[in-house]
Amino acid sequence: MAPKANADGRTRSSVQIFIVAGLCCFFYILGAWQRSGFGKGDSIALEITKNGADCSIIPSLTFDSHHAGEAGNIDESKPKVFEPCHHSYTDYTPCQDQKRAMTFPREDMNYRERHCPREEEKLHCLIPAPKGYVTPFPWPKSRDYVPYANAPYKSLTVEKAVQNWIQYEGNVFRFPGGGTQFPQGADKYIDQLAAVIPIKNGTVRTALDTGCGVASWGAYLLSRHVLAMSFAPRDSHEAQVQFALERGVPAVIGVLGTIRLPYPSRAFDMAHCSRCLIPWGINDGKYLKEVDRVLRPGGYWVLSGPPINWKNNYISWQRPKEDLEEEERQIEEAAKLLCWEKKSEKGETAIWQKRVDSDSCGDRQDASRANFCKADEADSVWYKKMEGCITPYPEVSSGELKPFPKRLYAVPPRISSGSVPGVSAEDYEEDNKKWKKHVNAYRRINKLIDTGRYRNIMDMNAGLGGFAAAIESPKLWVMNVVPTIAEKNTLGVVYERGLIGIYHDWCEGFSTYPRTYDLIHSHGVFSLYNGKCNWEDILLEMDRILRPEGAVIFRDEVDVLIKVKKIVGGMRWDTKMVDHEDGPLVPEKVLVVVKQYWVGNSTDTQ
Ligand SMILES: *[C@@H]1O[C@H](CO)[C@@H](O)[C@H](O)[C@H]1NC(C)=O
Ligand SMILES: *[C@@H]1O[C@H](CO)[C@@H](O)[C@H](O)[C@H]1NC(C)=O
């Protein structure tokens, strides 16, 4: 198309292209960020994406002008283009694939645990969004409404109709806030719990909901400033966890099976199960011992539904009296072995409390039966078998947690007690200062960060949780991921700040559905995984879990980002390289990305 020109003309026209293209891209990115996020028609987004295509030459141009010196020889070859996967992969979860699951034993729910594809089974294509996909409604509307097109499964509305979980209305699902165990709504139910558990004054901040359904409990706790990590297996009820994340509520796919939960010890202020179908009594209370591990001293465990109050309910539950009685006996026995104190039992809800330290458990159970785990293995969980042992209290009690929100910036007990090698209180303060500065710089780059446009946020390499603390707001929540290969195990610190997170190995698929995060922060991830596994796989996984028109902020060394930028050039992402806030001479740079809006083809329906 471009006419041949002499040297002069070429210079001038390339400057013009540069300016025009730069403006074009600027407005494009601005437009993409501003227009999306209101759950409106995808036609707008489509239009933007179409116009945006003309800008595809820009990013490298702007990049050149900033870094010509350091970049050395830029690899000019075309990036590899990744094609969309077949639309049957729209809801693909690599490590919870139904076909693969069926090849594993059902015993102890092993088949519902993580089983990731082998190297040669990995997909190398882009997971398509379903036709008609729209950006979810902004919070708090999203708590109650999810666009049908985003998770087009009506089976729950039929199966759980009487339980008031979810209703189908026109082109949206409505969540009335009911649950199997709270027919009067989650708020009323939480009020009942709050009569026993100090939910109101910030003592209880982090919670774990095991077998969460559509996470209404977690959704309604948010207005009380309690952050719940909910998990449920990927099962026949189609996509409960997906609904939770579409609603803007933290959740992951997970199950209590044979492997330890991917959370550190002493993390949660409260754990909860309402009719979660977890067999708490079996194997000498193996699963209760795991809950005990992740509960902080003084934390609470709530069980509502069977077998609590079975005498009045066994007929409606359609279960034999003897079974329920035996299950109750086993649970009480395990709780006694763990030295939990029963605080209340009312209706079908029972609440226990874990003792604050081992001394307050005077008449601990017959010690012969209490088999303790090794003290230094309390946080070693990744693919580690649950051994059915009791996690001992730490030798040095690390001190009281401040109530939230003071907890967010107080020095976490694990740091003040020196339990995180190489991290002092001063390092912690420094880290907080640094992240406040970085996040302020992000705010200048992307004005929408504080507006609620990004609700589900992931920090892929959270460190001490400084990013999440700096961005903290009731409009959003952050899944703080601590890579299993990270040099320092800091996830316990993250929880002590009143934030939530999970261990993960980025060489594998994350335990979530596609399109579940609005913003991903990737700090030092690619330096960390250099030589560990294929960067392409990590980036494709990021593309899978990122919503269309969602954003990624990479922060890494410039040479790392150049390689990343090249790979994502074939992934339908728009990119922009930005200097460190301290200027162009800092080798650490920031790469900002917006995933284009596109949906899969359903013309070739099976
Ligand atoms: C919060 O409430 C509980 C129970 O009422 C009380 O024991 C605790 O001291 C309170 N904590 C703070 C920080 O006010
Ligand atoms: C959908 O199908 C059409 C025609 O076969 C093709 O041109 C287009 O690229 C496809 N889009 C995607 C996202 O696969």
UniProtKB/TrEMBL annotation:
As for subcellular location, the record says: Endomembrane system; Golgi apparatus membrane; Membrane
GO cellular component, as recorded: endosome; Golgi membrane; trans-Golgi network
The alphabetical list of record keywords is: Glycoprotein, Golgi apparatus, Membrane, Methyltransferase, Signal-anchor, Transferase, Transmembrane, Transmembrane helix
Record field: transmembrane: 15-33
Where does this protein chiefly localize? membrane
- Enzyme Commission number(s) of this protein: 2.1.1.-
Which membrane topology describes this protein? Single-pass type II membrane protein; Single-pass membrane protein
GO BP term, example: methylation
Instruction: Read off the SUPFAM superfamilies from this record.
Output: S-adenosyl-L-methionine-dependent methyltransferases (SSF53335)
Q: Which Pfam families match?
A: Methyltransf_29
Q: Which InterPro entries match?
A: Put_SAM_MeTrfase (IPR004159), SAM-dependent_MTases_sf (IPR029063)
UniProt GO molecular function: methyltransferase activity
PANTHER family referenced in this protein's UniProt entry, alphabetically: METHYLTRANSFERASE PMT2-RELATED (PTHR10108:SF1119), SAM-DEPENDENT METHYLTRANSFERASE (PTHR10108)
- What family is this protein classified in? Belongs to the methyltransferase superfamily.
Under what name is this protein listed? Methyltransferase
Which species is this UniProt entry from? Malus domestica (Apple)
Origin organism lineage: Eukaryota, Viridiplantae, Streptophyta, Embryophyta, Tracheophyta
